[in-house]
Every structure is written in C-alpha cells, then in structure tokens.
Amino acid sequence: MLAIHCKKTETVDIKTPLLTYIRATYSDREADDAADDLEKVQTLRAEVAQAQSGTQPGVRDTLNKYFRYLNAIETRFPIGKEKNQAQVSFAWFDAFRPSRRVAQNNIHYEKAALLFNLGALASQQGLQSDRTSGDGLTAACKLFQEACGTFQLMREVESAKTESPRPLDISLECGTLLEKLMLTQAQECVYHKAVIDKKSPNVLARLAKQAGTMYEEVERLFNGAALANYFDKSWGQHVSLKASIYQVEELIQASRQHRLDDKVNNEIAVLKEAFARLQNTRRIAKATGQEMLDSVNKTQELVQALLAKAEKDNNSIYLMKVPAFADLPPTTGALLVKPVAPTNLEGTPEHLFSGLVPDNSARALSKYTDMVDDVIRRQLDRLAGATDTARIKLREWELPDTLQALDARTSAALPDALSRELQEIESIGGINHLKGILAEIGELRREVDDDLMAAQNSLDTDARADADARAKHGDKWRAQPAATAAKPYWDRIQQYRTAMQKAGDSDQGVLKRLADNEPAYAALSVESAAAQMPRLQAPMVTTGPEDPAAVVAGLRRNLDALQSLANERGGMEEALKELKNRDNVLQKVMATNPTNHDALFREEIKKYDSLVADVDKNLAAQEALLGAAGGANASFRAIFDVTGWRAACEAAAAGVRETVRQYRELLDHCSEGLRFYLGMSEVVRKAKQEAADFAFTRQVQRDELNQEIDRRTAQEDADKLAARMAAAGLRSGAAPPPPPTAYPAAPPPPAHAQHPQPHMQQHPGSYSQPAPPAHHGAPPPPPPVYAPAAAPAAPPPPPPHGHYSYAAPPPQPPQHGYAAPPPPPAGGYGQAPPPPPGGGYGQPPYGYPGYGQQAPPPPPPPQYGAPYGAPPQQPYPYGQPGQPYYQQ
C-alpha cells in the first residue's frame, strides 16, 4: 500500500505581523493582551513544522490544535497583501516535488497545507498498522477512511480558496486522486479482513471486484492531463498492478464459488479468463520488481493448479459444456467503506484572542455562513439534476449517436455486447496478443529442447566413460552397464520428446489458423467493425409531409442548444463557488451591532439573487428544449426507420461475432499451449538436473572402482614378489636385501602398534600395504587373507540390473564402500571371494544425496486437454502429422 509524504515548511513569523495589525486596528492594550496568545500560536506553528512522521507521539493532535487556532485567527484577522490586512506569508514546499516552494499571504493556503499533512499522517499510520491480524486491518481501514475524509475536506473547503496558481499537491485534481486512493486502500483492508474471517467466496469476489474497480479509477486519475508527469512513475505502476491483481483475485474467488455450486463448467471458464488476465499482470509486475513478479507467478501457479483439477473433474465426472466467459453473469462489487470526516477540527479555543472579537460576532458569522452554504447547495443540486435529466433523455433517444450515423459509420451501429467484446479484445492487444503468446511458446519450446539435449548429453557422456572403462579393464570391470542403469532416463527423455512432437503438431495447426485468419483478426476493432455496418440513410421516397433534411436540421439545432445550456450550467457552478469564496463579511459583522446582524445577512445574501435567477432561466429553457427535441426525434426515427436500421446492423454483426468467437477459441488454445509449455519446461528442467546428478554419481563411483582395481593389482604384484623372495632365501640360506622399490613406502606405525596384538582384526572395508621384512634372514610375512598368493579367483558376476528404475527401490545391501572387498570368508585363504552385494555401481556413494536409496523418477510430462498433451479424438486437429516442430 501507499502512504503520503508530509509537506515541509519554513519558519513563519506570525506574531509580529498580527501584533502590528492589532496595534493599528485596535490599541496597544489589546496588543499586549494578545501577545501571550500569539506566542502560543507561534510555538505551536514551530511544532507543526517538525511534525513529519506518523510515528511521532501525539503528532495529529498537535496539527488538530493548530487548525483550531487558525480558525480563531481567520475570524479575527484579515490576512492578505493589502495595507489594511495582516501581512503574514506562509511558505510550504511541494510534497511530491520538494524543490518547489510556494508562499502565499492567505490563511486558507496554510489550512490547506495543514489538512494535507493531517491526511498524510493518517495514511502513514495506516501503513504502519499490523495488517496481518484482523484488529490491525480494522485499525488500518479506519485510518485510511480518515485520510480520505481529510483530503476531501481539503479539496472541497480550503483548496479552492487559495490563490492561483496554486501548488499541484493541494490542487483539486491531486486532492481528488489522494481521496480516491485512500478510500481504495481502505476497501483493500476490508477484503483482507474478510479473507482472515473466512468469508464465503461470493463475498470475497464482490469485495475484490470493488477494489479492482476503484484501483482502475485511481489509475485513470494518475494518467489525467493535470497529473500525468507529476508523480513518480512507480506510483502509477503500483496502482496499475493492484488493479490487475484484484481483477484476477475476483475471478479466483468466483471460481471457488462455482465449485461450491457444482458448476465446474463455469469454474473452468472463469479460471481460463483469470489465466489470460494474469499475463497482463505479469507484464506489469516485471516493471515493478522481482518480489511482485514472484508473487504473481505464485498466483499463476495456483490458477494453473485449480484449472487443471477442474478440467480433470469435468472430463472424468461432470462432462459439462464450458461456456464462454462473456456469457457468464458479471460479479457486482460491494463498497463497504466511505470517507470519514476528521474530528477535533471544528470550533476555536474560547480563551484565544478573547479580547478582540465577541463570541456573538463569531456565532453570527457562522450563521451567515450556513445561510450561504444552503443557497449554494440548493442551486448546485438543481444544476446537477438538470444535467442528469438531459443526459438520461438523450441516452433513451439514442442521441446524438443516430445523427452521427448519418454522416459516417460509427460505433453506435454496433450492438452493445459486441462493442464491449471488441473493446476488450483491443485492450489486450488483439492479434498482437496472440503473436506475443506464440512467441513466448516458441521461446519455451527452445528452452525445453535445449534442456532435453543437455540431459541426453549427460547420459551420452556417462555411456562413453563406461565403455572406455570396460575396454581398459575387461573382466575386472564389474560395474552395471550404462545402458541398463540409464534406461529409465532414456525412456523418460523419449516420452518427453514424443509429447513435444505432438505439441509441435498442434503448434503448427494453431499457426496455420492464425495465418489463414490474420486479416480477419487484425480487423477486430470497434472502428473496423463499425465500417462493416450499414449506414443510416434517408428513404428513397418520402411519403410523409415532413422533409427529412429539415427534421435532421431541427434536431441538430435542439441538441446544440441543449449543449449550450449545459456549458452555461458549468459556468454558473463556478460563479457560485467563486462568489462564495470572495464573500468575506467578517469585518462587517464585527463592525455591526449584534441586533442588526439579521438585517445585515439579508442584505448580503441578495448578492446571490442574480445567479439564482440565471439558474431558473437555464432550467426553464432546457425543459422547453427537451420537449421540442423529443418530438423531433420521434419524427426522425419514423422517417429514417431507425428500428429497421438497428435490425440490419444486428444481422451484419453476425460475421464479426463469428470472427470474435474464432479469436476467443484460438486465444484459449494459445493459453492452453502456454500452460502446457510452462509445465513441460518445469519437468524437463528437473529431468536435466537428475540426469546430470546421475552422471556425476556414476563418475565418482567409476573413480573409486578404478582406484580399487589399481590397489588390488598392486597388492597381487607385491604378494608374488614376496613369495619369490621367500623361496630364494630358503634355497640359498640367506635372504638378499629387497630392492628399494620392491615395496611401497608406508608411514611408520604408531607407538602402540609396534607389537601387533594377536587378536586385533582389520576392518573388512579397509586396506593397507604389508610392511617389509625386519631383516634379510627373517621369513616373509604370510600373504593377506583377502589376496591369495595363487592366481586370483574369477571375478564375481556383475550386480543385478534395475537401478534408477521407476519401481520401488530394491532392498539396500550391507553398507560397504563402493567396490570394497567383503569380510574374509569362513574358509580362509584360498577360497574365492563371494560376489559383491547388489548395491554396486549405479548407486550413489557415501556423502551424496540419496545414498542407500534410489532417486525418485522424474515426473511425467504435464497432461492438458486438446490441443496439447494427449491427442484428441480426431488426430492432429491443427495440422498433419510429420510437420516440423514449432517455427517462429
């Protein structure tokens, strides 16, 4: 949510100019009596200048108190630039352009700036509330409503009384925007409170609908001519994103309500519309930040999951026909917030400047103000009512649309429902929207193909390494063959490629349909459709006494006169407000005896009589014109057969409706394809990673097996050499010294191992080189039990196949290291070692994820309805089999 920064100000000397005015107007004694009160005002003004944050304690109370002080000053001191006025210059900086400084000798400028800061502080406190709880949301909603009411008061009461040119931040346009923004955020708090309270989906949909509509209105105000380049662009992006988010949220909640009502077909239509709108939301979120984009992506995943479930249920259980989204009844918004007028602003401190103005004068001035407000309010209501009456009448008579249809083909010829559909298509981009989705599909397809190729390369690399090892070691290489271990991965890759082939055929069909109908889709706009409608023309033969041209001319004159009266009413509204702003009778009230105040007010109120008479004249003229226009319109419709023309337009719109239907159908297919490729991209990315992990694990295990084979080979060579040396020593009676390289170097044994104990056993999975003889005459040590001096036994059979299969993981073998020799057999030396356990090559080694268990198989490709996923009942509905993959 958004909070408003406070306006900053400079130090203003209020005391000196007001003391000067009191001395000049009253006397030195009154000036001395008012000095203490002026000092209070000056001190309070300095505190207001420091009030810039909603976290400061009592900050709003300080501003409220100063506003009441300004009320007292306003009724007693005329502040302005004239010599007979108190010349106090109030200086403030623009809240959104801090470098802009504006100073005015106008107390209403000071009050408008103060109201602006009061609204800003309320918005800051609302933003700081804990909006994760129900109580916090309630407090935030109340503060945002108070901020709305404060900005409304600033706009309606004080802004118009400031001098021109007035700063933009307190202008009428900016005040309206801030007022709407605060009220919209209050509505958003109501929605989140309803979510926490677990209200029904129908209630949530209505609240979300209202929030989205209000954000759209705020977005239009941001883009208005007066404020287009005033705010930072991030403000407009934020509001646009919120409007789009709540439009989608409305559809999500509506789909849940349809689910509760067992209307799965309506649920599918709503979720498809939500997915389509989410594409626009993602585009806006990309310009806002990664955090918002991640949030929108989560919402898209939710919509995809709900849509997939709904379609699955409908296809397997309900078997209901899915209607078009435009045929569903729209959701009605529920507005549960309103502006709350700020409290503690009315009235003035009774003790302040009590010696300057009597209380009855102040009460008399308030009475006159009420009289003026009553006159202005009644006249403005009459003017607004007249404008509404004229607009409603013209709408009923289809004017001026039917007159414009005489001159050119306009959108008035289109049926209302068709016009709305064409506007929606134009708003999402028309044919360019389809091309954009297809371009994104092409990019996703390339990514999927690249990931499949990367997975295949990982498996090919593993296969080549396995073949090289087998060629090098021969029968000693007992590892599971790569073709067996990687078979599940190859099967899955083939499954994905088959799905991609079918999707590519469907893509070609969609592209062909788009190419065949591209001119028709490009013409789906209000302007192009209106050009296909028949024109409203005068009859070839006139049977009545009236001339068609004269009827048209008379009707145009009536409409022009009505427009002139409407323009006059706008000028009257401004004149009434301007006169009220200039109507300052304070000096007269203070100079008049209280018993004559009523007579003074009756005299002063007469200045509004001329404007009231103008209003009466305008309304009477409009009533007469509406009567004449109604008769002229009846003649016009009869002569030009407007009813028949409407019927012809309805018939001519059939072709456009069919094109719209085909466009919607193709858009649904494109959205379906986009969802398919998004799902496929995810599962293929996981398959690529699993293939890379599989190849890496196999490489680590190959390295361990190579080291083990080299270690056994070296051990066998050492045993043979020791046996030959022992035999030579027995024959000659003396043992020759061993060559320096006969035995591998070994570190000296630790002190506690110099005399080995007879009962110490070696760990079955550990290996060590035998120590050389202590002297030449000593007999060599016996060969180790796991490496017989005779020829080594035949290599054990390879481990069984089945690793990385889709079946349940096999029972886990005893936990020995890869290729580690098993414990010595009971028969001792000379017996062939048993075959290694089943957990051989192909399982992860120690230290890697998933040791002792098989990695889960990669998920199957996503399944969606036609045209993606499983083929439909009629094969290849969008193209012929064998066509190439997607081409952009």
TrEMBL record:
Its main location: cytoplasm. The keyword Cytoplasm applies. Residues 752-764, 876-888 have a biased composition (Low complexity). It is found in: Cytoplasm; Endosome. One of its GO terms (biological process) is protein transport to vacuole involved in ubiquitin-dependent protein catabolic process via the multivesicular body sorting pathway. Residues 735-751, 770-786, 808-838, 855-875 have a biased composition (Pro residues). Keywords: Cytoplasm, Endosome. Residues 1-399 form the BRO1 domain. SMART domains: BRO1. The keyword Cytoplasm applies. This is BRO1 domain-containing protein.
